[in-house]
Every structure is written in structure tokens, then in C-alpha cells.
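pls read this protein:
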Amino acid sequence: MTDTTQHTTHLNALAEHHLDRARAAEHGRSAHLFLHDGPLRQSVIALTAGAELEEHNAPPAASLYLVRGAVRVVPAGEGEAGIPLTEGEIMKIPQVRHSVVALEDAVLVLTSVTAVPDALMPGAGWG
């Protein structure tokens, strides 16, 4: 028999909780992995104005959805330049090292795939 139980998360409540935690944290950040299904991950990330996710590598596939606030995704080596993201916007994360800077208090949902079968990687199995 198949388990059809739905596991749900209330995003607004999760966002509010982690924004409160970020405001209380010395580094101005709070994050929580709320969905983990094989290689699929979804996390809520709250940042206070001025807080930063330091430069890091991109996973094989990922997107950012900005629930509230404003951030800038900054590809490595671009200084203050970057891609602004405002409330309600979603973007594919570029496949380069990057950082994320909160321009105001912000809550993001990061959706990522941590492993991609070789057959699906660009240039593999399509030639």
C-alpha cells in the first residue's frame, strides 16, 4: 500500500520564525532545511539587512524565491555589481561562485538539486 500522507509546511509561519531568529542572531542569519527528498532540498533562509551569505559554489541546479525583502546575488569577482532580487521574484542561480547580500530584512526559499545523474548533465549522453 502506498503512503499518501501529505506533509505540508506553512511558508509564512516558517519565514516569520526564522526572520525572528535572524534578528536575534549575532550574524543576522537563520536557515532551516524543511524538505529533503533524495537529491531535492528546500530551505528557508532569513537574513537581516546587511547580512551576507559569503561566497560559495552553486549546486548542480538551484533557484531562489524571495518571499520578502530585497537581496543581491553577487557572482564572484563582480564587487558591488550583481543581480537584484525583490519580493515575489524567483531566479535560477548561476553556475558560478556567488554570495547573497540582504539589502533589507529578507526571507528566501532555496530549492536545490544536489546530484544530477550523468545522463542529464550537459554534454553527457546527448551526443
About this structure: The chain is about 10% helix and 45% strand. The first strand starts at residue 29 and ends at 37. Confidence is low (pLDDT under 50) at residues 1-5, 123-127.
